[in-house]
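Quick one: C-alpha cells for this chain, please?
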Amino acid sequence: MKKIEKFTFGMGDRFAQEGRAQLQAVVSAKEEGILVVPVWNKSNREHTIVGSEPDAVLAEARDAVQALKWTDGFHVDADHINLGNVDRFLAASDFYTIDVAEHVAREVDGHFLEAFLASHRKLVGVLTVPGLPAPLTIAERDIRSAAGKFLRAVQEAGRIYRHIRDAKGADDFITEVSVDETDVPQTPVELLLILVMLAHEGVPAQTIAPKFTGRFNKGVDYSGNLEAFAKEFEEDLCVVAYAVGEFGLPETLKLSVHSGSDKFSLYPVINRLVKKHGAGLHVKTAGTTWLEEVIGLAEAGGDGLALVKEVYAEAMKSFDALVAPYAPVVDIDPVRLPAVETVMKWSGHDYAAALRHDQKCPEYNPHFRQFIHVSFKVAAKMGGRYIDSLKTHREIVARGVTANLLDRHIRPIFG
C-alpha cells in the first residue's frame, strides 16, 4: 500500500494550464513551514466535458514538479470514479476516490447482511471512544440499520478496490472512499460502522469523506451551523482514530473534506480541531482555480475581458442544462444574476469584483460566482481560443491562481 502523507491538498485544474501556478502556492507554503503534499484531482465528468484524458493530468503534474524542483511528493487523483469508468485512470493515477453514492440504501443480499451482523455482534453495547464527550451506545438494530444503508455501497467499494489492485498491484495506490453525497450526515455510530464495513470488506481506505451538516455549495462559503459542523467534525476525527486502533485500518486513515474550496468560515474550525487531535487531513478543491482564470482574464482587459463576457452570454443561453448536473451543490437564483446586456458593459474591474470571493466587497455576487463555476463547459467548447487567451495573459492569471490557493486556502487550513 502506498502511504498517504499527513496533510494533502487536492487541486483541480479544468484545462490543465495552472499546474505550475498551483504548485507555486504549495512551494511558498513550505517556505513558510507549512508542508502539504499536492494532489491533482479531476473527475471522469470533467474529463468528458473538457475532452481531456487522465494522462494529461499526470503530465501537468510532472511538468510542474520538474519546473519548480519539488521533491516532497505528489499524487494524481482519479476523482469520483466507479467500476464503469475507472479503467481509463489506471495508468495515470495513484490516488482513487471511490464514489459509491448510487449504491447507498440499496438492498443488500440477506446472506451478506446476516454474515456481517454475526461477525460484528461484539460491537453491541457501550463503546468508549477517546475524545467523545459520552460513550457510544450501539444496539443490534443500529448495526442492522447501518448495514442496510451502507453495506451494499461498501461492497461496491470493495469490488472497485480489488479491480484497481489487480491491475496495479496493492502497493501502488491510495484509496479514498466517499460517502459525502448522501441526504443526511452520518452519526458517529454510522461512521464507525462504515469503517468497520470497510475493514470487513478488506478495503485499506486511507481517507474517508463523510457527509457533514450544512451546505457545501460550489465556489462559495459554507452555509450552515458552525457549532454543529464543529461538533460533527470533532466526532468524526475521534471515530477515525478509534477505528484505526480497533479494526486494523491503515494508521494513515484521515478525514477528507470534499467541495472544500472557498469554505472560509470553516477553516479556523478545521485548523483548530486537526491540531487539537494531532490528526491528518485531506482537503479537495477544484473549480476555484477555473474561477481565478476567469477573474484573471477579466482583469487583463481587452480580448481577455471580451472572452469571459462571451462565456457568460453563451452560458445564459443554456442556464438549465449547465446548472442541472450541479443542482444539489449550488443555490443560484436566476433573478439575482446580472443581465447579459449589463455584463457586456462591465469593465474588467466590475467583472472581477462580482466574481471574486470577497464577502466584504459590495459588488460580490455569489449567484454569479456559482453560475460561472458550473459554466466551464462553455469555455471548453471554445477550444483553442480559451487556452490561447490563458497563455497570452499567463502572468496575471497565474498570480491570481497562486494567491487564491496560498492566501485563502492553504494558510488558513494548514498554517
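The chain has two domains: 7-287+407-414, 288-399.
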